[in-house]
Design brief:
- The protein is mainly alpha-helical and 114 residues long.
- The protein has one domain: Orthogonal Bundle (c-terminal domain of poly(a) binding protein), CATH 1.10.1900.20.
- 75% of the residues lie in helices and 0% in strands.
- The protein is built from 5 helices and no strands.
- The termini are far apart.
């Protein structure tokens, strides 16, 4: 059997890996083995942190809603309970946006509930 050197394929793979690792610090952007390792970790972190980001935003929305609702002498949990009881299907993202940018609309919603 004849010997296959795989020169073209190996160079193409190496070029793609180093292109993806461009901007990484030290040897991770220049050495193939370190670049593979860095990209493997980067992929794992990116996957995990996409999930974390959703939690972070939900927490932020809760804080914004709570801050506004507390200024109107009602607790966050009672406010959410009233929303569910009245069948209002606004999610926390929309409610937080109202509390921040359109407080008069949010206050009108609050007076409707109580």
């Amino acid at each position: 059997m004849t010997r296959v050197k795989k020169g073209v394929n190996a160079l193409k793979t190496r070029r793609n890996i180093l292109r993806q690792a461009k901007g990484y610090r030290f040897g991770r952007s220049k050495k193939e083995r370190q670049a593979y390792e860095a990209l493997a970790h980067a992929g794992a972190y990116a996957f995990a942190h996409r999930r974390d980001k959703k939690n972070d935003f939900r927490r932020l929305w809760n804080v914004k809603i709570n801050a506004f609702v507390r200024s109107h002498q009602i607790t966050y949990s009672k406010f959410i309970g009233l929303l569910k009881k009245k069948g209002i299907g606004l999610d926390r993202k929309i409610l937080a946006a109202f509390a921040e940018s359109k407080p008069e609309t949010f206050a009108r919603l609050l007076t409707h509930l109580t």
